[in-house]
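Researcher: We plan to redesign the surface later, but first we want a full-length starting point. Tokens attached.
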């Protein structure tokens, strides 16, 4: 399991190594075709801040060579904000007082229809709070079966599950799983997740092994930018991705780097990442792994999304509602976080076409 592999890497020592990188290290990394973790650390280090244009050109080259001038479009559908966790940064924190919503199958179907009226999406991300008692595997399975009548590509972002549950859901039409580790800082993880099932660091970080062992087709990974030093956290993420690729080589992978947005509860980020730093991270990840899908959500501004679209990103959400039932059933419910890009899906698609990119709504079919 990756939790054992992670013990080989000291957080403070990794932070020091990244800070020690020089322009020579950056130039050496940029001259290579295949990057090591050490090269990746050089490209995300402060020493690389003056090489963004060169990194952007290489990132664009590798992205276009692998994915062409296309952007895969997806949309999230939140189906419950019921949660047993007390994550200090999340609007769904169980201590926040608001009406909890668990959509019924009929309401889920209404949401699917409303999304189809927005745009011809075929890639759906189903999102829940973490409540294994009221919205556990049987509930998620029923949601997949309902949504499967409208969408071919179904991904979930839910609580970490057992290998058996992932296998069960795959049989119900599941294609991919997204899970954010939030932070790889083992000691401070508990501070942000003081109670609930999410407080178990080992169970969460080893969930990706369970996904791979269950044969999940695509695994999405990420850290929440704003909790700990982002450079160290994403280095641990890169190590995790490298580990998974070697062990579960048939699986596809994606990464996402959400920056903290305002939510109910008022938690303020400990670390603020600038647009230039986020761009640097995306370029570095593309050079580290030419094949990984890099996803950009509506947390980011239209300006940033329009510019990064041609330089390294390969999938993008649009028209997102982050409250359960937000497309039809409960449009005024509490959202998990506020979005920055409030354009309609068609407006986002028009912006992509304006730079010569093709928005891809449907890129595969169930057999």
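Model: Full-length starting sequence:
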């Amino acid at each position: 399991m990756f939790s054992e592999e992670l013990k080989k890497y000291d957080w403070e020592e990794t932070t020091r190594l990244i800070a020690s990188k020089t322009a020579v290290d950056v130039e050496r990394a940029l001259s290579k075709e295949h990057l090591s973790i050490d090269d990746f650390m050089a490209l995300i280090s402060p020493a690389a801040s003056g090489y963004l244009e060169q990194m952007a050109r290489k990132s664009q080259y590798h992205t276009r060579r692998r994915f062409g001038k296309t952007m895969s479009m997806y949309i999230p559908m939140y189906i419950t904000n019921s949660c047993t966790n007390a994550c200090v940064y999340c609007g769904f924190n169980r201590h926040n007082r608001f009406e909890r919503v668990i959509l019924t199958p009929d309401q889920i179907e209404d949401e699917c229809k409303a999304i189809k009226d927005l745009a011809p999406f075929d890639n759906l991300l189903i999102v829940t709070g973490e409540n294994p008692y009221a919205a556990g595997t049987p509930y998620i399975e029923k949601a997949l079966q309902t949504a499967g009548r409208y969408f071919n590509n179904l991904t979930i972002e839910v609580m970490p599950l057992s290998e058996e549950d992932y296998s069960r859901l795959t049989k119900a039409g599941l294609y991919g799983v997204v899970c954010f580790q939030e932070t790889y800082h083992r000691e401070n993880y508990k501070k942000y997740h003081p109670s609930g099932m999410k407080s178990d660091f080992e169970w969460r970080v080893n969930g990706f092994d369970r996904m791979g062992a269950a044969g999940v087709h695509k695994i999405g990974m990420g850290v929440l930018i704003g909790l700990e030093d982002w450079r160290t956290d994403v280095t641990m993420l890169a190590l995790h991705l490298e580990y998974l690729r070697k062990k579960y080589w048939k699986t596809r992978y994606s990464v996402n780097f959400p920056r903290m947005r305002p939510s109910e509860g008022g938690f303020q980020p400990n670390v603020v990442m600038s647009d230039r730093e986020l761009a640097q991270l995306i370029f570095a990840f593309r050079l580290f792994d030419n094949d990984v899908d890099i996803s950009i959500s509506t947390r980011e501004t239209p300006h940033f999304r329009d510019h990064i679209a041609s330089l390294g990103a390969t999938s993008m959400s649009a028209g997102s509602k982050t409250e359960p039932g937000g497309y039809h059933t409960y449009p005024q419910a509490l959202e998990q976080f506020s979005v920055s890009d409030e354009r309609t899906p068609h407006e986002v698609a028009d912006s992509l076409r304006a730079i010569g990119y093709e928005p891809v709504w449907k890129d595969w079919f169930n057999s």
